[in-house]
Write a structure and sequence with these properties.
alpha/beta; six-stranded mixed β-sheet; 19 helices; 13 strands; about 15% strand; RNA-binding
RNA sequence: GCAGGGAUGACGGAGCGGUCAAUCGUACCUGACUGUAAAUCAGGCGGCCUACGGCCUACGGGGGUUCAAAUCCCUCUCCCUGCACCA
């Protein structure tokens, strides 16, 4: 299947400035990544996976870290002005984000650039004359982000954030001129910014350059944007979200979403996805689609070894492999992957829940205990204390709730 | 600058001197039913405790009035709406 058909089938094309067939001749494209945090989330992963697809279809990839643009802050999709981040923090963020992109592009040819390289030395007056002159204020004012921020109930917008779109347009133009980049890809909230570049190139170079946006990934069950909420964020950084937690997240995906995620987040071809969805329909309780999804995505983000390990930890979680018989080597890894504490026999369940982070406070832990939400080694647990006999070989699995993802390892001190 | 209006828990939004740890909705957590799914129903949802009870901290910041304040007064900060100023 050629690239344009594949992307259409996966639902990855929202807006574009070209005929679909144009995609099928490989050229050079770029994807800009914001550096507002030191780690990417699965929200960013969707678009990076799209970049991977283009690369595998023969396109040359330029990955742009927004060292300069992050200093200003993208107003797109935000309801109020952002806090400016210190420069040192953004530099750190860039390093973190770069490393993750390297991992995701392992074995694929790609180029990393930082727009600080050219935006950093840009002179303001030159910018106004060369770039500013090419933007119509009328057009800019009609942009949705400006409109919502400046409208009746808007929170206002600063000149700095307002100018963001022009900077991004400049990026595209610079890359077009200096690196022969002909396409920019991004999530649909970047559409306006991408068009800034397209029209700037048209005006200044009288040449064609194009933009492609993909839809924002939405949780079908709740209708909400995916991976955006602060607390529930799933990070690519294993220090923030361990590979096991990462794997568990995908295992736990709703049935309604799993097909879409397979298309967006894995490189599995159409036939394989259809095959999986067939099985999913027949035996949903075995969760074949979720298992495939979790395996594919974890392997891509954290590597094949980490994926294997996450799968084996899952076997311990669901009691398929008894935790009492875990090998010393695996145990070491589990201590990293799961919340874990050392305890004396006789420790109260409340204390164990709080210490391990499964409960937020003593009150919270008491509520959980009262509602019979405590499990030890996959069995409902109603006693107040963990006795010596509850530990098998000096350890046990403590769990909050019925789903396996909120588990912790408790070991005898 | 002047005049009005506003700031309440994760969010939206009630309350306008005691019965307010604060109605309600959403989000979130747990239980039942299931499949580590969804929907539905039920319970919970500031913290702490030797708990059908008690204590602490909270309604933008600070100060006051009162036996008693989220509720009244003063003041500061920020936001909104008009008007004025500036073009």
């Amino acid at each position: 299947m050629n690239l344009s058909d594949d992307l259409a089938w996966r639902g990855l094309i929202k807006d574009k400035t070209f005929e679909p067939k144009w995609l099928d001749t490989p050229r050079k494209f770029y994807l800009g990544i914001d550096a507002s945090s030191d780690s990417l989330t699965i929200g960013n992963l969707a678009i990076i996976t799209l970049a991977r697809r283009l690369a595998e279809a023969g396109w040359s990839a330029v990955m742009l870290a927004g060292g300069a643009t992050s200093l200003v802050g993208d107003p797109g999709g935000k309801h109020e002005e952002r806090e400016l981040k210190p420069k040192s923090e953004i530099e750190r963020n860039i390093e973190g984000v770069k490393a993750q992109i390297e991992q995701l592009f392992a074995g694929q040819r790609h180029e990393m650039v930082n727009n600080l390289e050219w935006l950093g030395e840009l002179k303001y007056l030159d910018f106004l004359r060369d770039i500013g002159k090419n933007f119509s204020m009328t057009e800019l004012m009609q942009r949705e982000f400006v409109d919502t921020r400046m409208g009746e109930s808007g929170a206002g917008i600063s000149y700095a954030e307002f100018s963001y779109s022009l900077l991004q347009g400049y990026d595209f133009w610079w890359l077009f001129k200096n690196k022969d980049v002909q396409l920019q890809i991004g999530a649909s909230d970047q559409w306006g910014n991408m068009l800034s570049g397209v029209s700037l190139i048209r005006k200044k170079e009288t040449s064609e350059a194009h933009a492609l946006s993909m839809p924002l990934v939405v949780n079908k069950a709740t209708g909400r944007k995916f991976g955006k909420s602060e607390t529930g964020a799933i990070w690519l950084d294993p220090k923030r979200t361990s590979p096991t937690q990462f794997y568990q997240f995908w295992i736990n995906v709703d049935d309604a979403d799993v097909e879409e995620y397979l298309k967006i987040y894995t490189l599995l071809p159409k036939e394989a996805v259809n095959e999986l969805m067939g099985q999913q329909k027949k035996t949903p309780q075995e969760r074949p689609a979720q298992i495939a999804l979790a395996g594919e995505v974890t392997a891509m983000v954290h590597g094949v070894e980490a994926n294997k390990f996450a799968q084996s930890v899952t076997d311990y979680l669901i009691g398929k492999s008894p935790i009492a018989e875990v090998s010393e080597a695996a145990l070491k890894e589990i201590r990293i992957a799961l919340p874990n504490i050392k305890a004396q026999p006789g420790i109260s369940v409340i204390e164990a829940l709080v210490e391990s982070g499964l409960a937020a406070s003593n009150s919270d832990a008491r509520r959980l205990a009262q509602s019979k939400a405590v499990y030890v080694n996959d069995q409902q647990f109603t006693k107040d204390h963990l006795e010596a006999g509850d530990f098998k070989n000096g350890r046990l699995m403590l769990r909050r709730g019925k789903a396996y993802k909120d588990s912790a390892l408790i070991e005898l001190a």
